[in-house]
Structure formats: C-alpha cells, structure tokens
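Thread: Newbie trying to understand structure tokens

Hi all, I'm a second-year student working on a class project, and my supervisor (Dr. K.) asked me to get a predicted structure for one chain before our next meeting. I've only ever worked with sequences, so writing a 3D structure as a token string is new to me. If someone could post the tokens and maybe explain what I'm looking at, I'd be very grateful. Here's the chain:
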Amino acid sequence: MKNDKKWYAIYTKPRWEKKVNQLLTEKGIDTYCPLNKVSRQWSDRVKVVHEPLFKSYVFTRISPEEMTNVRMTSGVLNFVYWNSKPAVVKDKEIELIKRFLDEYDNVELEEIEIKPSQKVIIKRGVFMEKEAEVIKVLNNKAVVSINSLGYRIVAQVKKSNLEVVRKQGTGW
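---
Reply by user tm_fold:
Sure, no problem. This is what the structure looks like when written as tokens:
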C-alpha cells in the first residue's frame, strides 16, 4: 500500500497549539507543533520558555481519510485552505523548519515585504505560476506586470497571492 499521508496546516483556537498537538498525538496522529526557545526576563531570573513559532497553527501528517478525525479534535478550528482544498505542506518545508529550530533560539517571523521592481510568482487565478514584476504596492494589493502573447498585461493582485522570486544562490 502506498503512503498517501501528507502534511497539512491546521488552524487552532488561540493559544491551543500545544494542547491540540497533545490531543492529536494521543489519537495516534502524526503532528508537529514548531516550538521556539525564547528567553523571558522575570524580575528575579531569566527563563527559557517554549512558544509556538506559528500562532494558532499546528501541522499534521495524515491521509485524506483521517481529516474528519482531526477536525473533530477539541481546539481545532479547521484546515488551512488553498484553492478551496486543504493546503498541503511539502515534507522538505517541515524538515527545514525542524532543522532551523534545532539550530537557532529566539526565532522571529517577519512577513516578506513586496516592493516595486521585484519579480514575483502569482499563486492563484488565471495567471497562477506565471512570473510578474511589481509596479507599485497599494495596502494589501500590488499592481503587477505580466508579459504574455506579446503584450504587457497590468493587473491588481492581492499581496497574499504573490510569492517573491528568490535570487539564485542567495537563499532569498
């Protein structure tokens, strides 16, 4: 039988990440709650605490048949969706997060800023997977230019539907 289990991101109630991770583990479901080692200063001491890296998110490795069991777990609100389906997280992404957190403490998440003249990939819509150039940024949207069929098409796209193209050899 082939292994049809994939990683999915699930959305939890606020501050329920560790509890949901525990409840799913007790059900025999493979889970991962990335924990960040953070130093906290108290008046009398410094203490290292483990906080979820992604607030209200836990990853679970399941087959499609197990989705209902996950959804019925206390503290789980739903799966994270992409294109009307539960979003699959690549194995290598989970492994990268694990290795990174093993090596570093006090990790902070920062949103990648989209700026004019950057190359981006459109992640949703009719131009999905097409490369574009950002012309200008407007709040939660960006005006992008796409070259297609000998024309330059200019459109407004939600920033959440864009992914910055990483420069070769830089890792960014």
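A couple of things are worth pointing out once you decode it. DSSP finds three helices and 14 strands in the chain. The chain has two domains: 6-103, 119-164. Feel free to ask follow-ups in this thread.
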